[in-house]
């Protein structure tokens, strides 16, 4: 039976953030990794250390039997609660006798928790996914990830979406988009760019999520600072924006009319709400739409290693990947998966892509400066 635990909220540099980050005298794991990550290559899985990737792992009767003997696994996830829970149940239905324990929270909170557990030698996590790919660079450098490449991953996922050493890969993706309530905003008056959000008419009408909680919003913040600079956020803060935590929260706020416009939010939330007949619409910003990559990997000291491998194989199967698209309107890079009907493919959208190594080096500075600007 699925058990669900929800965690409670508890190279180049950007501007002068380095000095700002050090002002409180605190050093994070990320601070100590800046020097080594700043020079990493600008690809999705840039890594200076290379090793031979493992041979693709098959789902064999022996693996299933070993997983059933373990009887459970712990899945730490930054996916939405409904998504993480659904995949746990799908796996349990396919492999009876193996319970999935879901630990769900925002990516940045999960990152902190896993770091604390690993430092204390608490071996609790089997498989983790995160909306911040930079986490995997950190975990891999620390030697915390176990190489494992399921057959489906090796056969049907593009090579640039798989870590060269096989320790993690892209589980899914989505876009961060501007959105608005169609009952409150006319189509011809809706914002079409991030610059449009600075119009005084949107004062007290905007909602956005926070990079200290959401890995997706951390990526968005990095990208918009790169493209528009910190003055953009300084002006946006003057709009008296409603701050929420998760990137899934702004679509809900505009749906119920608490705010008219979201400055960014998950495109899949808008797509699903529209299917339900809700008065919401998405806008791909003129400057480009941030692409959010969600990675997944197994931990080296996983207490249930066989169940973890079986679960990872299931997550990258055509069956599970198609469910991501059909049921949850996420994006998949699996070659056998069919796109949701009527939705524009990623190659038709102007995308903003982040370098995880640079995000890793700058993330603490980004969160600190953002908090100072918005006062939250």
Number of domains: 2
* SSE string, helices as H and strands as E: EHHHEHEHEHEHEEHHEHEHEEHHEH
Shape: globular
Give the count of helical stretches: 14
Describe this structure in words.
This protein is α/β, with parallel strands linked by helices and 376 residues long. It folds into two domains: 37-173 and 292-344, D-Maltodextrin-Binding Protein, domain 2 (3-Layer(aba) Sandwich), CATH 3.40.190.10; 175-291 and 365-374, Periplasmic binding protein-like II (D-Maltodextrin-Binding Protein, domain 2), CATH 3.40.190. It is built from 14 helices and twelve strands. It has helices spanning 17-22, 29-37, 61-70, 81-94, 107-119, 134-141, 151-156, 215-228, 230-237, 249-255, 267-275, 305-315, 318-328, 356-374; strands spanning 3-6, 72-77, 99-104, 127-130, 145-146, 169-181, 206-209, 242-244, 261-266, 280-283, 289-299, 351-352. Strands 1, 2, 3, 4, 5, 6, 7, 8, 9, 10, 11 and 12 form a twelve-stranded mixed beta sheet that branches. Strand 2 (72-77), helix 4 and strand 3 form a beta-alpha-beta unit. The longest helix is centred in the C-terminal third of the chain and has 19 residues, at 356-374. Mean pLDDT is 88; it is low at 1-49.
Main features:
twelve-stranded mixed sheet, alpha/beta, disordered N terminus, 39% helix, D-Maltodextrin-Binding Protein, domain 2, 14 helices, 376 residues, single chain
Quick synopsis:
It contains 14 helices and twelve strands. By secondary structure, it is of the alpha/beta class. It folds into two domains: 37-173 and 292-344, D-Maltodextrin-Binding Protein, domain 2, CATH 3.40.190.10; 175-291 and 365-374, Periplasmic binding protein-like II (D-Maltodextrin-Binding Protein, domain 2, 3-Layer(aba) Sandwich).
